[in-house]
Amino acid sequence: PGKPPGVPGIGRTQVFQAHEERPHYPAACAGCGRPLAPAGAGAYSGFQAVDLRWGDPARPGLTLWVVEHRYYETRCACGHRTRAGAGQGVVDPLLAGIELSEWRLVGPGLAVLIVALAYRFRLSRARIREFLGEWLGLDLSVGTIHRTLHEAGAAVAPVEDELVEAVLASTLLHADETPWPEHDQTLWL
User: Fold this and answer.
1) Among 16, 67, 68, 184, fewest CB within 10 Å belongs to which?
2) C-alpha span between 158 and 11 (Å, rounded)
3) How many angstroms separate the Cα of 67 from the Cα of each of 47, 49, 95, 111, 124?
4) Predicted TM-score (pTM) of this structure
5) Residue 127 to residues 121, 134, 141, 148: CA-CA distances in angstroms?
6) Distance, CA of 32 to CA of 88 (rounded, Å)
7) Percentage helix, strand, coil, to 5, in the chain?
8) How many CB atoms lie within 10 A of CB 85?
């Protein structure tokens, strides 16, 4: 399994300069439960997350913001090594293969933009990729965009029942101002 020797690999080609670094240290020993201090911890892993910073009236616009996450491990006085890890979300059994985790290239603000482009503005994954590249200078694969959309769906799944209840409790249902052309007449749904 895996890539044959000598074959070029596939991966990220765009290199990001991080705007900030966020260290993640273990809070307590996994062996004995004692609190752990960051002193003496060594980095063992990390990842970068690309997010959007939304402007304000003084500085309008969008800015790509890259955060370097570093995870550290610490040895306790009891001898046990404890590693900090990325937070994990609840996995919905109906969404096979979708796992919510902090370990993601796409941050929440960028994910919101991708969801809006896909579902509000009805752009295909390829068009979203083109938009991000042309307008923000961000090169994401179609697969990353597709996975982001599925993860966003998994993230909002817990509030689905609340939304259905709110719609059913509203005083006006099944009303729409969308025109519908039918046999040279304009009708409304």
Assistant:
1) 184
2) 33
3) 8, 5, 28, 15, 27
4) 0.74
5) 11, 10, 11, 15
6) 23
7) 30, 25, 45
8) 14
Q: How far, CA to CA in Å, does 98 sit from each of 73, 168, 176?
A: 27, 29, 34
CB atoms within 10 A of CB 72: 20
Answer for the pair 163, 172: CB distance below 8 angstroms, yes or no.
Answer: no
- Residue ranges of the domains in the chain? 15-85, 106-160
Given its phi and psi angles, is residue 121 left (phi above 0), alpha (psi -120 to 50 degrees) or beta? alpha
Contact (CB, 8 A) for 14 and 64: no
Q: Which amino acid is at 25?
A: Y
Q: pLDDT tens track of the chain, all 189 residues?
A: 677 888 877 777 788 999 999 999 999 999 999 999 999 899 999 999 999 998 899 989 999 999 999 999 999 999 999 999 887 765 666 666 677 777 789 999 999 999 999 999 999 999 999 999 999 999 999 999 999 998 888 888 888 889 899 988 988 877 777 888 888 898 876
Rounded CA Rg of the chain:
23
- Say if CB 155 and CB 88 are below 8 A apart: no
